[in-house]
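Table S2 (continued). Query chain:
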Amino acid sequence: MGSTHHLGRAAGLPRAGLALAVAAVLVLPLAAGCKAGRAGASGDGDRAAAPASLDELAARTGCDLVGRRKAQQLQQGNCRNSRGQYVLVSFTSDQGMNAWLNEAKPWGGTYLVGTRWVAVSTQATLQSLRKDLGGHIQSGDMHGMSHS
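Corresponding output:
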């Protein structure tokens, strides 16, 4: 049996394997709790976010990567610094990133999405990172009980 940290091949990955990859990345934001509401892009930092390697993303945000994982079509690393805790994921193709996001969003979470990269964390942390990385903030599906 393979390692539970194997991320697989995002675009050509069987649904079960991609679900495991998504679950591995979503541990951090889910531990922080689900947040209600939709996140949108604000006027600041709407500049185009160019493709960047995992190392470039980490350098721009001032973090030393830990828990680094590499697969055929993506790389992932965890960061923790004065801005908060976040996960950085870089992709080799737009198709791979879009497939990953389609699988991740039903699990909830908040995402800073650029060109072939995603950062996953809380809304506040992603707003801070957006100043250095650009991109647009997106929210996954809302989870939890409704109090009506």
